[in-house]
Amino acid sequence: MSVKEIIAELFIAESQIPEAFRLEKELHQSEYLCNGQMKPWNGDRHTVLSPICIKTANGLERKVIGSYPICGQKEADEALEAAVKAYDNGRGEWPTISVADRIACVEHFTHEIIEQKNLVVKLLMWEIGKSHADSVKEFDRTIEYIYATIDSLKELDRQSSRFEIEQGIVAQIRRSPLGVVLCMGPFNYPLNETFTTLIPALIMGNTLLFKPPKHGTLLHYPLLEAFKKCFPKGVINTIYGRGSTIVPKLMQSGQINVLTLIGSSKVADELKKMHPKVNRLRAILGLDAKNAAIITAKADLKLAIQETVLGALSFNGQRCTALKIVFVHRSLVDEFLKGLTEAVAQLKIGLPWDQGVALTPLPEPNKPVYLKECIADAEAHGAKVVNPGGGESLESFVYPAIVYPVNDKMKLYTEEQFGPIIPVAAFDELEEPIQYLINSTHGQQVSIFSQDKDELAHLIDPLVNQVSRVNINCQCQRGPDVFPFTGRKDSAEGTLSVFDAIRSFSIRSLVATKLNDSNKHLLNEIVDSHSSNFLSTKYLF
Ligand code: G3H
């Protein structure tokens, strides 16, 4: 069967949806969490259309899976007020309770959300078209991340549970919260990436405004009760609605202390500039990337092809870490394109619940049109789609296109396509891809493929100063989550990892005094009476 014929059979009728993956009912969210209460919402709603189309009498239609509130400025202001009040200039219950108590709340929350796993996994599949296997992986990885964060914070707290004496000054140094955090996650990892900022921010004692991503909102609905139950009121508040309408005023209020966003650098830049006192705003951002693969003449071609497929097409290329352009030494390019074409043809097209599926429908309604534009633009500048069926689409599904030869006149050379296109360029001298990285506005990661130690060493040294992770003979990726995840230029601000995130969302504070008998006595009395949560030598097991 041709790609066109396979795609034509992709979508099924309502009655053919496997029982195990059906949503029991449409999920219409008519409430939102603010100041410890689920507040009713009777205003406008956003209808959630799945990327999965259904065959109907009227042709293919995106399945309606539910709706969520489109709140306005009033609700956003209320949420901000609740978070500001819960923080209470650092005097609120949450920023002042002990680390052990905050950990207990997060543990309680984790037990509660594990109960919701099946529903959240199904919603991931229906809302963003992620395969069942990857949706389960996203949920499990999130839970592991929370537990690892707890362990990391315990370790940090243990190190801080002692006094330090230097030059006649005794001090206890701990990390304190920063204030009110505005947290916005991306659609491609709506649970995992949101929680890799939200959980560290929470556990460090900050209070939050949480705006779920446009695609991937409903899957957070089953978790709201757990937020409400496990944290003091006002510590976590949800905001819904059009970001461009409600977020500017929040930033302009000057009451947001931390902006954490996994999304576009353009949006992040605009939002930061809206804060009246930029020096008071900390930003922890995971932004755009255009990670390149460099396949040298000395590469193991089979391995390079295998990793390119994984790197460029996992979750249909919708990963910030995806390989978004591939530079291949001219001597290998024909063989590479042949092998890549064969490897792409092996990938299974299907719906998220299909066993072994690799390519699924895309959640962003405008993405198929944008990808077509990218391909047409490349063709207009001399490239071709080299794989059979490349770029064929039906509604929300786009079949991967290998586009060659890509040059600097094309959108695909610089734009982050965030979809199933693999742009390939040939090079003669290694200096060419190095110059590409130097001139790129992005600086997240690179993958280099070579079996020659000298060649690798010659590339590693300049490239670690261009990007934040150099991957050797493997695709780019964020994990393991204990490794630092960041980027240069327009790709990130701040560093995330289990270890780094708890530091990113806090600041060091210390209590210090001159070491004399009177002060020694006072400190001992405070510690012995357990009257301060900060000045304490309690050891967290
Ligand atoms: O969208 C970007 C994600 O951080 C990528 O994570 O490399 O584990 O897929 P990943």
Task: Give a quick precis of the structure.
Helices cover 38% and strands 23% of the residues. The protein is an alpha/beta fold and 541 residues long. It folds into two domains: 3-286, Aldehyde Dehydrogenase, Chain A, domain 1 (3-Layer(aba) Sandwich); 291-488, 3-Layer(aba) Sandwich (Aldehyde Dehydrogenase, Chain A, domain 2).
Topology readout:
Layout: H1 3-8, E1 12-13, E2 27-28, E3 31-34, E4 37-40, E5 45-56, E6 59-69, H2 73-87, H3 93-96, H4 99-114, H5 117-128, H6 132-160, E7 164-166, E8 169-177, E9 180-184, H7 192-203, E10 207-211, H8 224-230, E11 236-238, H9 243-252, E12 258-262, H10 265-274, E13 282-286, E14 291-295, H11 301-313, E15 323-329, H12 333-345, H13 367-380, E16 384-385, E17 393-394, E18 397-398, E19 401-404, H14 411-414, E20 421-427, H15 431-439, E21 442-443, E22 445-449, H16 453-463, E23 469-472, E24 488-489, E25 492-493, H17 498-504, E26 506-514, H18 517-529
Parallel strand pairs: 1-5, 2-6, 9-10, 9-12, 10-11, 12-13, 14-15, 14-22, 15-20, 19-20, 22-23
Antiparallel strand pairs: 3-4, 5-6, 7-8, 8-26, 13-25, 16-19, 17-18, 21-24
Bound molecules: glyceraldehyde-3-phosphate.
Residues 188-189, 193, 319-321, 477-479 line the site of glyceraldehyde-3-phosphate.
